[in-house]
Amino acid sequence: MELIELFLASILSNNVALIFILGMCSLIAVSTSIKNSVNMGVAVIFVVTATAMINWPIYELLKATGTEQLSLLVFIIIIASFVQFLEMFLAKFAPKIYDAFGIFLPLITVNCIVLAISLFFQQRQYDFIQTTVFAFGSAVGWAFAMILLAGVRQKMYRVSNIPKGLRGRAIAFLILGILALAFIGFTGIGRVSF
Amino acid sequence: MNNQENKSTIPKPSGWLRLQYKKWFVILKNGISDENPIVVSVLGICSALAVTNRVENAIVMGIGVTFVIMGSSALVSILRNLIPSKVRMIAYMVIISLLTIVVQMFLQAYLPTVAANLGAYTGLIITNCIVMGRAEAFAIKNPLKYTLIDSFANGMGYMLVLIAIAAIREPLAFGTFLNMKIPGFENWINWNVMALAPGGFFVLTLLAWLMRTLTKNYEEN
C-alpha cells in the first residue's frame, strides 16, 4: 500500500517537472513534437530508474566509509559513465533502438532529474525498493508532463496566432504554468515521506 | 580593435563609443542582456524557478552559481590545452562537482537556514546547463582573461533575472521583501500560488516577453 501511494504521489502530487520544476532545459527543448517526447520520455524512464538502482548501494558504501560529502561527485560520475556505456552498448548491439533514442542520451546526462532523484532518495532516506518505485514513478511523471506540453504546443503552432515576443520557448512557460496549476489540484494524493 | 589601426586617419571617437567596441565590453553586454542565459537562451530554468519564492534565496543561489561558473570556466580555460577533447565532458563534470561541493559545504556551515530552504537545489548546480554551456561554448577555446569576464557576465545575467523574479514573487506570496514587512502590505492576503511552481512560470513568461520585446530578439515557431 505504501509503495502504491509513493508511486501515485511521484507521478501526480509530487510531479518532478510541474511541482519541483526539474529537468526544464531538455523538457522545453524536446517538447516540440509528441513523437520526440515519447522517445525521450522512454529513454529518461530507463536511465533514471537504472541509475537510482545503481546509486543506492553506492551511497550505502559511502555511508559505511563516512565519505557522504563526496556523494555529489560520485553520483554524477556514475550517471555520466552509465549514459556513455548505454550509448556505446546500444550503438553496437541494438542499432534500431539507438537510431530512435541515441540523440537524446547525451542530453540526459545534464538533465537535472537524473541527479535530483539520487539526491532526493538520499535526503528522504528511502530503502532500496522505495527508491526504485520512486525513481520509476518520478520519471513516468516527468515524461507525462512533457507529452502533455508537446501536445498543446504542437496544436498551438498550427492554429493560433501567438504574439511575436512569446513565440517559441516563452509560450511553453505559460502552458507549463497552467499545467502546474492543474497538477496542484492533485495535492493530497499519496505520500512521499514515511 | 580596428580603432587602434585606423587611429591616424579617423578622428578619435568619443569615450562611450570606443567603449562599446571593446572586446570585454561586448562580452559583458552579451552575457548580461543580449544573450541572457535565462530569458533569451532559456538555460538553467530549473533552479531559476524553484528557489525564487524569496529574494534571499535568489541572491544566495545567484552568488553560488556565479562562483561555480567563474571557477569552472577559469579552470577549464587554464587546462584547455591539456584536456583531451574526447573526455572533456567528464573533465567538466569533475571540476564542476568539486566546486559545487565547496558551495554546498560553505552554505551548510555559514548559512544553515538558507541551505535548508534551497535543499537539493544547491547540489543541482552541477546540472545547471549554464555552467556546462559556458565551459563548452567559451572557456575551452578562450584565454583566461576573457573567460573570467564572460563567466562573470553570465553569472550576473543569471543572478539579476533571479532577483527580478523573486522581487515580484516574494511581495505577492508573503507580503515581505528580504523577509521584512513592506510598509502598506501589513494586511496583505498571501497569494499562495505565487510561492508555488505556477507563480514562477507566469512571472518568467512575462519577463521573457518583456526582455524579448525590448531586445527585439524573437524566435520563430
Short description:
With 194 residues, chain A is mostly helical. Chain A has helices at 2-11, 24-30, 34-65, 71-93, 95-101, 105-109, 112-124, 128-159, 169-184.
Determine the number of helices of chain B (DSSP H or I, runs of at least 4 residues): 11
Find the structural class of chain A using helix and strand composition: mainly alpha
Order of helices and strands of chain B: HHHHHHHHHEEHH
Given helix and strand content, the structural type of chain B is: mainly alpha
Number of helices of chain A: 9
How would you characterize the largest beta sheet of chain B?
2 strands, antiparallel
What sort of overall outline of chain B do the alpha carbons produce when their principal axes are compared? globular
The radius of gyration of chain A is: 17 Å
> Approximately how much beta-strand content do the residues of chain A carry?
under 5%
What percentage of residues of chain A falls in helices of 4 or more residues? over 70%
Largest interface: A-B, 46 and 44 residues
**Major beta-sheet overview of chain A:** none
Helix percent band of chain B: 55-70%
The poorly predicted ranges of chain A are: none
Strand order of the largest sheet of chain B: 1-2
Cα(first) to Cα(last) distance of chain B is 37 Å
Q: Which parts of chain B are unreliable, with pLDDT below 50 for 5 consecutive residues or more?
A: none
Folded structure, characterized:
The complex is a heterodimer of chains A (194) and B (221). Chain A has 194 residues and is mainly alpha-helical. Chain A has one domain. Chain B has eleven helices and two strands, in the order αααααααααββαα. The mean pLDDT of chain B is 85. Chain B is an all-alpha fold and 221 residues long. Chain B has a domain of 127 residues. Chain B is globular and about 65 Å long. In chain B, 45% of the residues are buried. In chain B, α5 runs antiparallel to α6. At the A-B interface, α2, α4, α7 and α9 of A face α4, α6 and α11 of B.
